[in-house]
Design goal:
Elements: E1 3-9, H1 13-24, E2 31-37, E3 44-50, H2 53-59, E4 68-74, E5 89-90, E6 96-101, H3 107-114, H4 127-137, H5 142-152, E7 157-163, E8 169-175, E9 180-184, E10 187-191, E11 203-206, E12 211-216, E13 219-223, E14 235-236, H6 252-258, H7 260-271, E15 272-273, E16 276-277, H8 281-289, E17 292-297, H9 299-316, E18 320-324, H10 325-328, E19 339-345, H11 351-362, E20 366-371, H12 377-381, E21 384-387, H13 400-415, H14 423-438, H15 441-451, E22 456-461, H16 464-480, E23 483-488, E24 505-510, H17 516-527, E25 532-538, E26 548-550, H18 558-576
Parallel strand pairs: 17-18, 17-19, 19-20, 20-21, 22-23, 22-24, 24-25, 25-26
Antiparallel strand pairs: 1-4, 1-10, 2-3, 2-4, 5-6, 6-7, 7-8, 8-12, 9-10, 9-11, 11-14, 12-13, 15-16
Helix pairs in contact: 3-4, 4-5, 7-13, 7-14, 9-13, 9-16, 13-18, 14-18, 15-18, 16-18
The structure holds 5-amino-5-deoxy-1-O-phosphono-D-mannitol (M6R).
Length: 594
């Protein structure tokens, strides 16, 4: 993961880089660093430490304006988060400084083969890149040395590189990890994501794999690994700056939970003309032509995919499988004759999903990406893409992207179904019902205080409620650190019920008429063993003792609604424990390493 920013131009490099790093902190936040060129020739100031970008801001004060620099916010892979392992890293002679996002898989082999006897300072895989550039630059030009280094690296990298002796130049390189070049009359900025560029550039260049970039003054030249100049596309940045601020909310997560009804309305606005769905005909055709859909995703997006399978199979009668991206990449099942791969990814950058995309593209299979980031790698590289229009999601814990993904999957499945429901009406109803739950947040906060008193917790449900439980439990565990499992209600008694003790919280989701009684029987079984239960149900199936009763909605769409109180449960459980809600420990928003 990690976020990188580099700047060369006539503005204040430190300010631009620190601002960009703040915006990229969702990619990793265990340490941060910056290298800024100094006033004299060849001088460079390095500041780096364990901790957040705010800490880096405190320790990196300089009393002059630097015009060249690179910065990094880290999610540790090789080496614990400490000062020494923080980026930037320099070459042994201190000439080349680099920041890196990615993983160099063959760094040990490279050390043995090319850098035997050298003195390494850190435990990172990154340092080897700086050392190799130094070694090759003894006989080659700097550009050739960087490209030669690139040709030896196995794995993923987005790099920004400074040569201490060249104040008017900066280099960048990319393979697998995302990297963009932002353009402006006041300089060039290199960043892992458009977010780092917003406010500075209006246009950017997305880089392809194996690109080498030379920035000199205000000019950009892009080459492939053998030094042949590459053509590139310049795109407009249309991210709304205000959308990436917290505003009146205490946390981005709370803001994003609250935004869900308006996201559903935004989706209606984007994909309907009156009652009619206005989906790209090519997407519909691609689904129709396939005889089995393969949804590939990770984490929350995979949980949305599980609902997608239900929608495609039950509404449209199209066979569908859902796979964990990291498993599928290296352990592919037997495929049908005409598969269509559907990648679901909020960020569009998840390395596990991309590994599958690269793999299936090489085999000639068709693909569709459903994403929140239309500029992302998965959006660019798939044959088709559909945007979920959730707006920037900043909190690491995904909320509005999940409900937006399901809404989009519902639209896709609906267009291929007999269309016996009024989809627009059902989605509008959902938006209102979501608002009704969000209005009950103080009550949910109290419920959490009363019931979630233990180190562990269970969510139980059946059918589509079970899939909603998987997402609900992921949310609770990732931000409150309560060990939570989402369980098929009927399966609990086959072993896991042994974990239920006096006061163990068990939260049931019940929104389906046909399984109402079964799930309630399973609830009785845990209650008899001392569980502290909470029931989230819909009006049609509710009992008077249920704590959270939601409006009735189209049953197959119920996870869009039932998940909302569980997002609030997670939020308040974390708040009551005093945790960093938007940046939970050990995590990052965009998982760009496999
Ligand atoms: O960007 P993606 O949707 O591809 O990310 C996949 C997962 O890393 C992500 O959904 C993760 O599980 C969530 N941040 C959890 O809330």
């Amino acid at each position: 993961m990690c976020g990188i920013v580099g700047y060369l131009g006539n503005e204040n490099a430190r300010e631009i880089i620190i601002k960009g790093l703040h915006r990229l902190e969702y990619r990793g936040y265990d340490s941060a660093g910056i290298a800024l060129s100094g006033e004299g020739d060849g001088t460079l100031h390095i500041f780096k430490d364990k901790g957040r970008v705010a800490h880096l801001e405190e320790i990196s004060g300089i009393d002059f304006v630097s015009h060249q620099g690179i910065g990094h916010t880290r999610w540790a892979t090789h080496g614990v988060p400490n000062q020494v392992n923080s980026h930037p890293h320099d070459s042994e002679d201190g000439r080349f400084f680099i920041v890196h996002n990615g993983v160099i898989e063959n760094y040990k082999e490279l050390k043995n083969q090319y850098l035997d006897g050298r003195n390494f300072k850190s435990d990172t895989d990154t340092e080897v890149i700086a050392y190799l550039i130094e070694k090759f630059s003894e006989k080659l030009t700097v550009e050739e040395a960087i490209r030669k280094t690139m040709s030896l690296l196995e794995g993923s990298y987005a790099l920004a590189i400074i040569d201490r002796t060249e104040k008017n130049k900066m280099y960048a390189a990319k393979n697998k990890s995302p990297l963009l070049i932002g353009l402006s009359d006041n300089g060039i900025i290199v960043g892992s994501d458009v977010m780092a560029l917003v406010g500075f550039s209006k246009e950017y260049i997305p880089l392809d794999d194996h690109s080498f970039v030379k920035i000199e003054g205000n000019t950009v030249a892009i080459y492939d690994i053998i030094g042949k100049e590459m053509q590139y596309e310049v795109k407009a940045i249309d991210v709304d700056y205000l959308n990436i601020e917290k505003g009146e909310y205490a946390h981005f997560m709370l803001k994003e939970i609250n935004e869900q009804p308006s996201v559903i309305r935004q989706i209606i606005g984007r994909y309907f003309d009156g009652e009619k769905v206005t989906l790209n005909g090519e997407v519909k055709k691609a689904i129709k032509e396939s005889n089995r859909l393969y949804i590939i995703a990770a984490g929350t997006s995979m949980n949305a995919g599980a609902i997608g399978r239900e929608l495609f199979e039950k509404m449209a009668g199209i066979p569908c499988e859902v796979h964990i991206a990291s498993e599928f990449a290296y352990n592919m099942p037997l495929l049908s004759k005409r598969p269509l791969f559907i990648f679901i990814s909020q960020s569009g950058e998840t390395a596990d999903s991309r590994a599958v995309l690269v793999n299936i593209k090489a085999k000639g299979y068709r693909s569709l990406t459903i994403t929140n980031v239309k500029t992302s790698t998965l959006a660019r590289e798939a044959d088709h893409f559909v945007e979920i229009h959730a707006g920037p999601e900043i909190a690491v814990a995904s909320t509005k992207a999940y409900t937006a993904q399901i809404a989009i999957l519902a639209i896709l499945a609906y267009t291929l179904s007999d269309q016996h429901i009024n989809l627009r009406k059902e989605l509008s109803k959902l938006a209102i019902s979501m608002e009704n739950v969000i209005d009950k947040k103080e009550y949910i906060e109290e419920l959490v205080r009363e019931k979630l008193t233990k180190r562990n917790c269970f969510y139980i449900g059946r059918g589509i409620d079970y899939y909603a439980c998987l997402e609900s439990s992921l949310k609770l565990k990732e931000i409150s650190y309560i060990q939570t499992e989402g369980f098929a209600a009927g399966e609990l008694k086959h072993g896991t019920i042994a974990l239920i003790e006096e006061g163990t919280p068990v939260i049931a989701i019940i929104s389906q008429r046909k399984i109402n009684h079964n799930t309630r029987s399973n609830l009785q079984e845990v209650k008899s063993r001392g569980a502290a239960t909470i029931v989230i149900s819909t009006k049609a199936v509710h009992e008077t003792t249920d704590q959270i009763v939601l409006d009735d909605v189209y049953e197959l769409f119920s996870p869009i609604l039932t998940v909302v109180p569980t997002q609030l449960i997670a939020y308040y459980a974390a708040l009551q424990r005093g945790y960093d809600i938007d940046k939970p420990r050990n995590l990052a928003k965009s998982v760009t390493v496999e």
